[in-house]
Each structure stands twice: as structure tokens, then as C-alpha cells.
User: What shape does this take?
Amino acid sequence: MNPRRFTCVAEQYHLAYLAQRLQLAQTAKFGIDLSDDRIGIELKSRLNLYTPNFAVHEYQVEHFREELPHHTLFWAFMTYTLDTPISEMREQEIERQISSRETWILPWDWIRQFPIAAAKTGPYIYVHHKYFPKHDECITLEEKGSKLHFPEGWGLEERLEREKE
Assistant: This one.
């Protein structure tokens, strides 16, 4: 499978997974990936084979905040593992081949601690996974090979509790 095509399709599966877990819609409202009338989440994902550096285009930080001023916004940084190499995969098999996901959901302004770096395609903020909160600094939920880490007290735990009922 073409790696570029794989990335686009896999991202849709990751969004569907998070939308279901957090009871949010995949609306891409104002460019943000997941939202409802109170919360918005922008997802960045990386296959575990690669360096767990996430590139965030700098304009997103201000633009999404301006577009959704009354929402509580979050970044979701996800790493995932596949059972089959991308080159051997067919598009309809992608969801079944994702063997694990680990996602850190962090408050929007958390990203402001990192410098903005110049690049050919625009200024980026690079976030390395080593800066994510440690497991004991956040709530961690595990389910079917996936882990979801998020800060306490931001309204996310109530969404996950409702899901269990």
C-alpha cells in the first residue's frame, strides 16, 4: 500500500476510535478534528516505528483557539503499532492491523512550552514524546491493547465514565 494513502486512511480510523471513546463528533469544525459544543481535540499520530516526534504547524495553535474561543481545546498525540508492514497491507485491512494505540490528551496551552522552528513549509512546533506527562501524573485507562492518558479535572473523565454505563 502507498504509505501516503495509508497515513490518510489510518488517521480516519484513529479519529473514529477517539470520537467513540470520548463521545465527540468527527466534524473537522473550523479545522479541529473532533468536537462537540464544549470540547475540541486536534489529533497528531505516529507509527511506533518512527521517532516519536510530532510536528504541529504553528498557525494551528492560534487559529483553532480563535475559531473556537468558548471550547476547551486539547491536543491528542497518538503512537500506534501495526501487525503487518504497510507495504503488505490492503486498505480494507488497516483497522484490523492496528494492534495497539497509546494516546496522550493534553491541554491546549501545554504546547506553548516548546519553541517554534522554521521549516520550508512553515513554522512548526516539534513535540517529542519524552515530554509527555509520566503515567503517575495523569489518568490512564487501558482497553483492548490501547492506553489513553489524560489530565484529571478537565472534563474528560466524565465522558469516559458515561461510556462505561
